Amino acid sequence: MQDQRKPTPRLFGALRQHFPRTHAVTAGAASFALALTMFVSTPEVEAKRLSLPVNLSTMDEMNAAAAGVQQQRPEETAEPKLRSQSLKVQNGDTLSDLFQRAGVSATEMYQLLSSGKEAKQLARLTPGEEFTFHTDGDGALQSLELHRDRLNLVAFTRDEADAFTYALHQREADSYTAYREAEIDSSLFVAGSNAGLSQSLIMEMAEVFSSDIDFALDIRKGDRFNVMYEEKFLDGEKIGNGPIQAVSFTNQGKTFSAVRYVDSNGDANYYTPDGKSMRKAFIRTPVDIGRISSHFNPRRLHPIFKTRRPHNGTDYAAPRGTPVYAAGDGRVIKAGYSKSNGNYVFVQHGERYVTRYLHLNKRKVKSGQRVKQRQVIGTVGSTGYATGPHLHYEFLVNGHHRNPATIVRKLPKAKSIPESEMARFRSQTQPLLAKLENYEQPALAQRSEDNDNNSVN
């Protein structure tokens, strides 16, 4: 195919043959202009093509779609990511300390504390609890979580009105019955530990029988216990123990039994199987672990002054720092220090009874303070005239000293289950006692068989 631009000289030659020169030139110019318009766009069309608007964002979206990437429009921008920081409560920590370590201002702390009565409870800290702070990019507190334990979470969240709202999140642990038994060879603590009991459960068992058994004086080799309690699990992992449900303790051939009962008011206490309270007005000993290093003796030879001086109490030798409990409900009438007594606490129980606790390492109560039975009032020490860490414990009736090891047995117990509540008591406790008995039967049978074999031999 021939190039259409090349015939132009032939066209000029034909024009020369038929037209005068001037006419031919004019006609040639016109023909050249016509040919030029066939290859070049008009200015108006070119202007329209160049003036079309270009939408860059639309083009970006088209390019991203072609590449398989989804674009995010400006109005769909994700919210700023919060910074999380977890802090554990240490001994001596205050809420202000935690906020300071988290980098949150005191102003925000006060705003949170003023948001309601629930927030004010944050000021009461317990070592081991965990706080989680959630702050934005400016360091402003958006939410605060308090993990009291693995089952309870308290949350405070900033709302749209710039105020904090409160929420409590609780989980339920799975509970299973556990059973342990042991024969005492040297001490309750060793026997309980070997049987797989925690220290707190051993102490709880001692507390149940504290009005009937003096665990510093009465325990003998061959004593036995059988205890049924709850174990708590969360997500298949053991997280702790629940309370003792039923327990029996054989001391010097005499067996004591107790069962836990929750009354109609929601209060839990321990009772004998027939509904009598296990709790006397006074516990037998004001310490859980210890030994009697000196008995009540009006004619004792004093270990320091080497003279005959009345020993109007009982001395319990125990490690320094061992908790000392109030023997019964009452009011602190004296708490101080003297050269002979060291740190001391005196408690009045009603009109007739006073208990005294001497040589304490630390006092935990003040004069005039009300105390409950088994409340910690101090710790064992060796202050004042003392040769070593021990508690000197006195019991006075109408102003006269009595032997603390024997007087408690003569005092009345606390109130028993009223007749109007006995049906409820039986329906709740009889299944527990029957379950404990079922656990005990194989052990009783085994001991009986062992005794028969020993007799034959």
TrEMBL record:
<dbReference type="GO" id="GO:0030313">
    <property type="term" value="C:cell envelope"/>
</dbReference>
<dbReference type="GO" id="GO:0006508">
    <property type="term" value="P:proteolysis"/>
</dbReference>
<keyword id="KW-0482">Metalloprotease</keyword>
<dbReference type="GO" id="GO:0046872">
    <property type="term" value="F:metal ion binding"/>
</dbReference>
<keyword id="KW-0862">Zinc</keyword>
<feature type="compositionally biased region" description="Basic and acidic residues">
    <location>
        <begin position="73"/>
        <end position="82"/>
    </location>
</feature>
<keyword id="KW-0378">Hydrolase</keyword>
<feature type="domain" description="Opacity-associated protein A LysM-like">
    <location>
        <begin position="84"/>
        <end position="166"/>
    </location>
</feature>
<feature type="domain" description="Csd3-like second N-terminal">
    <location>
        <begin position="181"/>
        <end position="298"/>
    </location>
</feature>
<keyword id="KW-0645">Protease</keyword>
<dbReference type="GO" id="GO:0042834">
    <property type="term" value="F:peptidoglycan binding"/>
</dbReference>
<dbReference type="InterPro" id="IPR045834">
    <property type="entry name" value="Csd3_N2"/>
</dbReference>
<dbReference type="GO" id="GO:0004222">
    <property type="term" value="F:metalloendopeptidase activity"/>
</dbReference>
<dbReference type="InterPro" id="IPR011055">
    <property type="entry name" value="Dup_hybrid_motif"/>
</dbReference>
<dbReference type="InterPro" id="IPR016047">
    <property type="entry name" value="M23ase_b-sheet_dom"/>
</dbReference>
<dbReference type="Pfam" id="PF19425">
    <property type="entry name" value="Csd3_N2"/>
</dbReference>
<feature type="region of interest" description="Disordered">
    <location>
        <begin position="65"/>
        <end position="85"/>
    </location>
</feature>
<dbReference type="InterPro" id="IPR007340">
    <property type="entry name" value="LysM_Opacity-associatedA"/>
</dbReference>
<dbReference type="InterPro" id="IPR050570">
    <property type="entry name" value="Cell_wall_metabolism_enzyme"/>
</dbReference>
<dbReference type="Pfam" id="PF04225">
    <property type="entry name" value="LysM_OapA"/>
</dbReference>
<feature type="domain" description="M23ase beta-sheet core">
    <location>
        <begin position="310"/>
        <end position="404"/>
    </location>
</feature>
<keyword id="KW-0479">Metal-binding</keyword>
<dbReference type="Pfam" id="PF01551">
    <property type="entry name" value="Peptidase_M23"/>
</dbReference>
<protein>
    <submittedName>
        <fullName>Murein DD-endopeptidase MepM and murein hydrolase activator NlpD, contain LysM domain</fullName>
    </submittedName>
</protein>
